[in-house]
Every structure is written in C-alpha cells, then in structure tokens.
Amino acid sequence: MPNRENSTKIFISSTAQAALQPLRQKLKTILDASGHKALLFENNFGLWTDNTLRDCLRKVSESEIYLLFISNESGSFTNIDPNVTATYAEYLRALDDQKIIMPFIETHILDMFRQHIKRPLESRISHYKKQFDSDPAYTYDIVKEMVAEEERGTDLYDKLNNSGVHPFQWAFIYDLYSTRWTYSTALANADLACEFIIEALSQILKSLTPYYPVLDQINESIATADRLTYFKESIPHLMQSLRGGKLDTKNLLYVLSMYLKGGNIKHNDSPLDNRVLAQVADCHAICLYEKNGSKLEILEHSDAITPQKEYNVSDSSRLLPKHTIQRMRILSMCSIVKRNSKSI
User: Fold this and answer.
1) Boundaries of each DUF4062 domain copy (predicted)?
2) Does domain 4-211 have CATH number 3.40.50.10140?
3) Which of 25, 106, 136, 201 is most buried, judging by how many CB atoms fall within 10 Å of its CB?
C-alpha cells in the first residue's frame, strides 16, 4: 500500500451546493487512484474540532495544490468576518501560503462576467481608488453598491437579478480574474469537468519539469537572494556610523542591535524533538569592552542601560570564560533569556 502521507495533497475547495457534489466525489476518486491525496471537507480527514473553519484552513496549509470551483452559490459567510465566505477564506489561506492555485469557474458564469460585469465593476473600483487613494477593503462592497444602484430595466440590472448568481460570486471572480489565470469549464458535468481538470493538472506538471533537475540550485538562489536583500538593507544604516571619516561607535552598536535577532534554543539537535529549552529575545542593547592589562574597560554602549564600567579579568568570581577574556576586544550582547517562563 502506498504511503499517502508522502503523496501530493490536493485540497478541493467549493461551496457545498448539491450541483458540485458529483464533481467533488468523482475527482477525489480519480486523484486518490492516481496516487495523490485529495482533501475534502465532507470526507474524514481525522479528528475534527468544534471549529470547522479553522480545521479546513489548516488542511489548506497542509496541501500542495489548491483546486477551487466556483458556481452560482456563495456558501456560508464566516462568523469572524461577515464579508468573507468560508470558501473565500480557504482561497486567502492558499494565497498567503503560496500554494499552486487553480480556479475553475462555471463556463456560463465566467462568460457573463467577462461580457457584462467586468467593465462596470472595474469602472467603480477605479473611481473608488481615485477618490480614496487605495483599493477597497472588500470587492464585495463595490458589487453590492453596483447591484443596489443599477437602474431598473437596464440590461445589466436584468442580468444581475435574473442570473441566479449570488452577488458575492462576482466579487470573488473579479479578485481571481484580475490576479491570476482562471479556467472555464462545465462544472455540472462531472465526467467532462474531471477530464479537463486532470489535463490542466498535467499541464502544470509539464511546465514545472524543466526546473526539477535544478531544484536545489533554485532553492539556494532564493536563500542567497534573501540574504543579499538583508545585507543591502543594512548598508545605509551602517554607513551612517561613518561621519566625516570617523567611526560613530555608539550608532554602530545601535545598528548592530537592530539586526541581532533572538530565537529558540532547542532541547537537543534531534529533528524529531522540537521541544524548546529556552528562548533568547531580540537584542535591545550592546556593550563594547576593551582589554587593558588585567581589566576590561567599557568603550561604548547603546540604548537605555547602565553597564559596569570595568571588569577585573583575574577575578575568578566573574562569570567570564577564559577564551573570552583572552580577546583584545569583547562585544557583549545584552539579551534576555527566558527559561521555563522565568528569567535566568
């Protein structure tokens, strides 16, 4: 038996309307038979809690591919945000987690959007941006205004009111259509829709195959680019410490403290043991000492601290390791270490 936990997880997202149930079930059967793991709300993922939305969003995060089907019904709106449906919340999670997102829209609904809804909606959103110098918080708000203000008897009024499409769906489609490629197919025909979806998945796989042999190099390049960006951003701050050819030590220490971030100290190095032994907070202050004979003398410090002016390196009562006191200059990073919720 194949190990399903190692299979590609594909989240199938749509409203629970009856017209889409045959497609959802048939697609799950095909995907599972192909060695993938299809994730469906109505199927048993394991133990559910009393917060099904949170459970669904967690499953979206666990998946690699997010398949979205949009028909005429909006589905239920969330209690957390009355402007967002459960399906839209799943889409937002997939977007945030940078999943492969493949939206499939009922053909006649997408055709109507392109021919009759898209332009007047774009016009209203453009007007909103000019008026408020920002995007609307919710596209759905603009759609509701458009539906309410459209003059009775116009072609658009008749189509909006006779389409049987919930107004939220026009907002959903607009958000998808304006940012990514959308697929059009007859979702009500489960057999034909499944064939089309499998073909689309195959095209995605085909487009990614040239990059698979160089996947390690791509990941390394991404990591290098992140480090380079971090370095580039730090340069202007560090250059401020050089004024008139002289080093502003205090400012240098302040800048360094901005980039010294804390983190977790693990219980051990095992990848199976994620227990946290202690936490090191971000650096908020730095003291710089210089060794002068048998003493460490303060050179400079940053931020609101009152450091000890000097240490006697021959004093065995001081908690300074031998390899530290042998250095000519010592940088002491003052951070707070928390262990078992108590400072140490």
Assistant:
1) 9-94
2) yes
3) 106
Name the amino acid, one letter, at 256. L
Whole-number Å distance between alpha carbons of 264 and 308: 28
> What is the pLDDT tens value at each position of the chain, 344 positions in all?
455 667 899 999 999 999 999 999 999 999 999 999 999 987 755 555 568 888 899 999 999 999 999 999 999 999 889 899 999 999 999 999 999 999 999 999 999 999 999 999 999 999 999 999 888 989 999 999 998 888 777 888 888 888 899 999 999 999 998 887 899 999 999 999 999 999 999 998 898 888 888 888 888 888 888 778 877 877 777 787 877 778 888 888 888 887 788 888 876 665 555 677 788 888 878 888 888 888 888 888 887 677 888 888 776 665 545 444 444 334 444 333 333 333 33
* CA dihedral of 229, 231, 232, 238, whole degrees rounded to 10: 150
Indicate the domain borders of the chain: 4-211, 248-343
Output b/e per residue, 305-314; b: 16+ Cβ within 10 A.
Answer: eeeeeebebe
Give the phi and the psi of residue 78 in degrees, each rounded to 5.
-80, 155
